[in-house]
Write a structure and sequence with these properties.
Structural class: alpha+beta
Number of domains: 1
Largest sheet: 2 strands, antiparallel
Strand content: 5-15%
Helix content: 10-25%
Strand order of the largest sheet: 1-2
Number of strands: 2
Radius of gyration: 13 Å
Shape: elongated
């Protein structure tokens, strides 16, 4: 499967045990064990696709006001990649 530059769950092995997710705009926050995410989605799954799925139910995900949109992200990711 071509990666197209996407970060995959396999890239996190040995770097993060827990993947934190958060958004300052909507208040969404959570943490997920990387091993469990790999079990559920596979080591070659793109983490951005998974993020879109978990944030899909956010009422601020699709809003007219760009300043108030959900901007869910991974706060620890830049530190390890």
């Amino acid at each position: 499967m071509p990666r197209d530059g996407a970060i995959i769950f396999g890239d996190l092995i040995g770097k993060l045990d827990v993947l934190r997710v958060g958004c300052d705009s909507c208040g969404r926050a959570g943490s997920y064990r990387v091993a469990r995410l790999i079990e559920q989605h596979g080591r070659d799954a793109a983490i951005v696709d998974w993020l879109d799925k978990i944030a899909a139910d956010c009422p601020k995900r699709v809003t007219v006001n760009w300043n108030d949109q959900c901007r869910v992200k991974y706060p620890d990711l830049p530190k390890v990649l």
